[in-house]
Structure formats: C-alpha cells, structure tokens
Amino acid sequence: AINPENVNRYRAINNFEIVTNESVIDGVNVCVAMPVETIKNVNPAASLVLELIYKEGSAYRDGKAFNNDMDRHGISLSVGNGSDELSAYATCSLDEVGKALDSLEEVIYNPNITEEKFNYAKSEIMERLSKLEKTPMEKLNGELFKNEYIGISASEMLDHLKNLTIDEVRTFQHQLLEAD
User: Fold this and answer.
1) pLDDT-derived band of residue 36, with 50, 70 and 90 as boundaries?
2) Could you give phi then psi for residue 156, rounded to 5 degrees?
3) What is the pTM of this model?
4) Where are the alpha helices (DSSP H) in the chain?
5) Which of 10, 36, 62, 159 could form a disulfide bond with 18, CB atoms 3.0-4.6 angstroms apart?
C-alpha cells in the first residue's frame, strides 16, 4: 500500500511532473514517458538511429565519459522513442535520482548527433537488421499495421536506413521535443 505521506511530487522540465513514493528499499526505477503528437512525414529509420545515438553520451560528454560517470554513480539509463512517444528509464539508488534525471535531460535535449555518430548508428542497425530472419509475426504485423511503424519489415527498414540523412534525424529529434 502507498502511504500518501511518503509521496512527493516534483516539477521537471516542460511541466512534467515526477511523483515518488519513498520506501525502505534503496533501489529506484524511474520511468518518464512523454507522449507527443504523432510525427508524420519522417523517415521511420530516424527513430532507430536516434535511439542508438542517445546511448553515445551527449553533446557535452562523449559516450565513454558519460557512461563512466553513470557507472561511478551506479546509474543505468535508457532512452527510447517512436513516432508518438519519448520514453526514458533510470535505475539507481534513491540518493542518485536527481543525478539520473539530470543525466536523462542532458542526453535527451543535447544528443551528440554528429556525422560520425550518425554513420556508426546507421551501420550498426543495418548490420543487425540484415541478420534477422523473416518471421510469420513480421508478415502479420505488415498486414495488420500497414502504414504504421510496427508494420515495417526488416527489409523495408533497411531501405529506409539507406536513404536516411543526418538532417532527418536532427529534424525528428527536434520534432519529438517540440511536439504538443
């Protein structure tokens, strides 16, 4: 049961509200899901590339420095996105929640979208997708979810990746943060 006296509310960036429930357990899992208006007319591969770029640190700290800092503080972070949501996850001790949230904000609002990171992410994803075997589920999703992200097959996504530009990734990231 949740004791209302242990519940704290915090205002974060862009009027997001963070609600915590203090307990005797030191470990904390934080999930921030930011729904956005569905973004149209964007290369669907942009979200995959951006997701991988988020793992490479920020414009302020490269992946190695950023990840070493997270390891030093016992923080695990993950950022995901799609055409209608930006999700961020953190696992840390209660004392490190502020650091975790600041680090998520750093990565989300200042991703290191350089040619080098873009080309690395693009080639990594292309390699992974090229190794996937076709499955009945992929075919079913393609039929059920035509013209939706989930309905895109691995081979179709490879075609989208081949044509993806760094400007499309930057535009997608900007639209994610600016969407109402």
Assistant:
1) confident
2) -65, -40
3) 0.79
4) 45-54, 63-72, 97-109, 115-130, 136-144, 154-163, 166-178
5) 10
